[in-house]
Amino acid sequence: MISEKQQKIIESIFYRLVAIRSDTNTIYEPIIEDVILNWFREREYFQENPEYFGAEPLEDDVYRRDVVWALVKGEGAETIVLIHHHDAVGIEEYGNLEDMAFRPDELKDALKGRVKKKDVLRDIQDDDWIFGRGTADMKSGAALQMGIVDHFSKQQDFNGNLLILSVPDEETISKGMLQGVKLLHKLHQKYGLNYKLAINSEPYFNNVRDKALFYEGSVGKVMPIIYAKGISSHISNPYNGISPSMIMANIQRRTELNPSLCDVHENDATPPPMWVHLKDHKKVYDASIPEAAVGFFNWLTFVKEPREILEALKEFAKEAVTETLVFVDGSYEAFCEMNHQDYDPIDYTPVILDFEEAYQRAKEDGGERFEKQYEKTLFLLKQDFKDNKVTLPELAVKLIALTGDYINIDEPVVIIGLSGPYYPHINNKNIIGEDLKLEERLNKITKKYYDFQFQKNEYFMGMSDLSYCGFTGKSEDIDVIKRNSPGWDEVYRIPFEAMQALNMKVVNIGPWGKDLHQRSERVYGPDVFQRIPTIIKELIEEVLAGDEKSARVG
Ligand SMILES: [Zn+2]
User: Which of 138, 164, 306, 427 is deepest in the core (most CB within 10 A)?
Assistant: First the structure.
């Protein structure tokens, strides 16, 4: 078990980290980075080995954020990597309790008279639950990982190495971990580290006390952008046009919450897609049918690759446009009958393109003018993105709409592109290498000290930085993503090659947390200060002990 002294160290840094505001993608993040870096600087081990810790700046970052890292160097090359993020979501949810979001005790008192939910009230009465922004997600994980590193830094002969990465921006687009991947590569070269396992400590979600969950992977997320161009017409003459809004509505109806789009892997299924944006793309107000409409949504994945998602969406788009045309034609026929007019069937051929095809088409139709305009727009958007004035999906929408504008076709057109942030799914089953028998090992450790069960789940469902600890897709998948994501490599890039080279197993073992991102966010104290650090510490010892000791396991 982790010593009482180590437990106190974890408790003290945990409350310090919670007290420091670190809203994601803001100027607050560098402040907490300084605190974490200084904490390592004060440790005896790092005073003796100042080359073993540091801050790696993010490239092109307006807030000058860093990945803070520290390495405890033992014998040999085998290395375990601890990963956590030090940013947290904002505090708008707290309303007039905002200034208590970082003061757990005061917040707990203040919430007493304000919440009605039974389970929250029960936990308010329970001293083991700690409330506050970032308590669960994930200053608890940060603190317990730091405590574990501190523990190992005091060991004499220690087999293997332990590296910790504390990254910013996880709640935005994971810029921190994307930089972290490059840092891992650098440290591998400099110190000859051989990465065996990455341990993240995001909280687990559960309702019962005697069962904890760990995750041997992390769900993926793809964000398709759909742009529909209709046929413009004045509203007094509606049958002269085709509304892109109706096309989009039909695509949404076919995809949103459609259970056949859940990605199924063995006994689990992802939630079906959910649209997060849907809007017409009218440039000015007038009495005509909008010329275009645009929308985007999240598609969560266990095994499906973006290539398959694009293919599926093209099919849905085709059906949706056809459905729209049939409906408009039927309405027109009825209208003609009412007005005793001749009916001439409405006849269009829908054009469905992925972004790569649309870009080619625009180049053919718009020539150099299009290319120049595209370059110029991209250049300006790149600056806006750096200055935080535009988000990744907004930027992708602008580039797709510009491309759509240059396509010269008198038919309804649908363009399907992709936008970052892209989170590839990851799971140990698809990562080559030794089976670390994590479930067996974790349950053996918990049985030794505690009386709860550690249940294995294949995927952490909240999206996490583990997504970037490897890439198990094919190289053609990478090509499809790059070619269909406007702005790729210019504003947003994923170091796929470096990720592929990492090839380490992944696991998420964190404390029990509830209501993340809400004002009742809370974490289970005993997990933070004692149970999870003990379990991770022992797991690290077992995994790094190598074959001799692992032969004794199970
Ligand atoms: Zn998190």
Answer: 138
In the reported structure, the alpha carbon of residue 85 is separated from the centroid of ligand 1 by a whole-number distance in angstroms of 7
What integer pLDDT is reported at residue 549 of this predicted model? 45
Domains 4-218+425-469+504-550 and 220-423 share a fold: no
**Cβ atoms within 10 Å, residue 548:** 8
- Boundaries of every domain in the chain: 4-218+425-469+504-550, 220-423
**Neighbouring residues of 551: CB distance < 8 A, sequence distance ≥ 6:** none
125-181 per-position pLDDT tens digit: 999 999 999 999 999 999 999 999 999 999 988 899 999 999 999 999 999 999 999
pTM of the model: 0.93
Centre of ligand 1 to C-alpha 186, Å, is: 25
Report how far apart, in Å, the C-alpha atoms of 225 and of each of 205, 394, 494 are.
Answer: 31, 10, 19
- In the block, tokens 């491309």 appear at 403
Q: In the CATH hierarchy, which top-level class contains the domain 220-423?
A: alpha beta
What is the token pair recorded at 452?
């709860």
d(CA 226, CA 331): 26
**CA 485 to ligand 1 centroid distance, Å:** 25
Contact at 8 Å (CB) between 398 and 377? yes
